[in-house]
């Protein structure tokens, strides 16, 4: 399994949604293989410009999940101070059933991105423009250097591989992919910095 780690600096509660949306849009934009209309967007608090897909359904999905993540953490008064978001990509495969007379769709997961966030207080400076730019460029390098695992394209859709954005807890039963073991060690380690992982 291929795993890449990049430092992700602390964010304040006010920075959280914008930073999360920037990272999710960056990953999705680079996992679109159809004809895409690029659209510039800005992380306002540090005036950082990035490119995302000019697509209403992607915009809605990312915005909703970022707000849900923030709201769910806010309800718990940002406790624990470290939580993660996962964006996972699946491949559609079709398996024959009933002696070949019918086909059943299966989803095979081929890529996971784990975005662990560590929260700073509002009094702290949180994430700077340079911090986000470093993570942003690291994501792009990782994407450009890791292409052999991408499944073959079987359709012309903008995002040919279904994706899911979710918020794991240490109790989630996804150890079979090695995600929670890595995430658990990061969350428990006394000096471990939050990281972004590609598995």
How would you sum up this structure, described in words?
The protein has four helices and seven strands. The chain is an alpha+beta fold and 199 residues long. The strands form two sheets. It has a five-stranded antiparallel sheet, with helices on both faces. Strands 2-3 form a two-stranded antiparallel sheet. A hairpin with a 4-residue loop joins strand 2 and strand 3. Helix 1 runs antiparallel to helix 2 and helix 1 packs parallel to helix 3. The N terminus is likely disordered. Belongs to the ATG101 family. GO terms for molecular function: protein kinase binding. It comes from Planoprotostelium fungivorum. This is Autophagy-related protein 101.
> How does the major sheet shape up?
5 strands, antiparallel
- Distance from N terminus to C terminus (CA atoms, Å) equals 6 Å
Structural class: alpha+beta
Shape: globular
Average pLDDT works out at: 81
Strand residue percentage: 25-35%
Helix content: 25-40%
Q: What is the rounded Rg? A: 18 Å
Question: What's the helix count?
Answer: 4
Number of strands: 7
Number of domains: 1
Main-sheet strand order equals 1-7-5-4-6
Low-confidence stretches: 1-5, 173-195
CATH architecture identity:
2-Layer Sandwich
CATH class assignment:
Alpha Beta
> What is the third-level CATH name, the topology?
Cell Cycle, Spindle Assembly Checkpoint Protein, Chain A
H-E order: EHEEHEEHEHE
């Amino acid at each position: 399994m291929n795993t890449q780690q990049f430092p992700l600096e602390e964010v304040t509660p006010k920075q959280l949604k914008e930073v999360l949306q920037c990272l999710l849009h960056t990953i999705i934009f680079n996992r679109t293989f159809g004809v895409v209309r690029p659209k510039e967007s800005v992380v306002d608090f540090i005036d950082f410009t990035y490119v995302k897909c000019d697509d209403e359904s992607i915009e809605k999905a990312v915005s909703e999940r970022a707000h849900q993540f923030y709201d769910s953490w806010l309800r718990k008064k940002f406790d624990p101070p470290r939580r993660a978001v996962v964006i996972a990509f699946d491949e559609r495969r079709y398996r024959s059933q009933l002696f070949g007379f019918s086909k059943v769709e299966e989803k095979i997961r081929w890529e996971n991105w784990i975005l662990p966030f560590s929260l700073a207080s509002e009094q702290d400076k949180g994430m700077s423009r340079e911090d986000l730019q470093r993570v942003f460029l690291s994501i792009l390098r990782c994407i450009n250097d890791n292409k052999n695992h991408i499944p073959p394209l079987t359709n012309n859709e903008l995002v040919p591989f279904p994706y899911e954005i979710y918020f794991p807890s240490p109790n989630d039963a996804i150890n079979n992919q090695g995600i929670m073991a890595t995430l658990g060690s990061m969350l428990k380690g006394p000096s471990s910095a939050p990281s972004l992982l590609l598995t």
